[in-house]
Design goal:
Elements (H helix, E strand, L loop, with lengths): L25 H16 L4 E3 L9 E4 L11 E11 L3 E8 L2 E11 L1 E7 L5 E7 H14 L10 H18 L14
Antiparallel strand pairs: 1-2, 2-3, 3-6, 4-5, 6-7
Length: 183
C-alpha cells in the first residue's frame, strides 16, 4: 500500500469521466488499498480514483466516527440506481478542494449498485452522511465536483481562488545559465 498524491482544483483531470473497470484483478485491489491509505492519511471520508489521477470507476468511503472502528467500503463501477424526492443539505468539502466547504442539497436517500473488490455485485441503500458521500464520490467518477452544485458565482469564485493559488505554487522558470565569452 502507498499514499498517493491527491490532485487539486484546477487540475483538468478532475473533470474527466472515469472508465468502468472491466476486470477486477490484483491491480484494482492494490489501487483501492492505496486509495484507502491515502484517504485515511488526508484525512477524509471518501476518495475517487480520479482524485489521485487515475480515471477509473473506483471509490472508497469510510464514514465511521473517530471513536468507532474503521468501516472501509470499496465500490467499483458504482452507479446511482434510485434517489428519493426528499432532499437534505450537508456541508461538503473535498480533498481535491482543500479547506473549502459549502452546503450542498442532494437526495436524502439513495440506492447504489456496485461491485466489491472480489467482483461480487452489491447494492446498498443509504441515507444521511453515507448517502451524501456516495453521491459526492460517484459524481467524481462522472467528472462532477461538489462545487458544480453551487451557484455559478460561488463556483467561479472558488475556481478563481484555486487557479490563483496553483499559479503561486508553480516554481518560477529558471533563468538561462549565463555564459561568458572568455577568450
Amino acid at each position: 500500500m502507498a499514499i498517493r498524491p491527491i490532485i487539486k482544483l484546477p487540475d483538468p483531470r478532475l473533470k474527466l469521466v472515469s472508465d468502468a473497470i472491466p476486470v477486477i484483478d490484483e491491480s484494482v485491489r492494490t489501487l483501492a488499498a492505496d486509495m484507502l491509505e491515502t484517504m485515511y492519511d488526508a484525512p477524509g471520508i471518501g476518495l475517487a480514483a480520479i482524485q489521485i489521477g487515475v480515471p477509473k470507476r473506483v471509490i472508497v468511503i469510510d464514514v465511521s466516527g473517530k471513536d468507532e472502528p474503521k468501516a472501509p467500503m470499496i465500490l467499483i463501477n458504482a452507479r446511482l440506481v434510485s434517489a428519493s424526492d426528499e432532499m437534505s443539505v450537508y456541508e461538503e468539502g473535498c480533498l481535491s478542494i482543500p479547506d473549502y466547504y459549502a452546503e450542498v442539497e442532494r437526495p436524502a436517500r439513495v440506492t447504489v449498485s456496485y461491485l466489491d473488490e472480489h467482483g461480487a455485485e452489491r447494492r446498498i441503500e443509504a441515507e444521511g452522511l453515507l448517502a451524501t458521500c456516495l453521491q459526492h464520490e460517484i459524481d467524481h467518477t462522472n467528472g462532477i465536483n461538489f462545487i458544480d452544485h453551487l451557484s455559478k458565482l460561488k463556483r467561479d469564485r472558488v475556481i478563481k481562488k484555486f487557479t490563483k493559488a496553483a499559479k503561486l505554487e508553480q516554481p518560477a522558470a529558471e533563468p538561462a545559465p549565463h555564459r561568458s565569452m572568455a577568450g
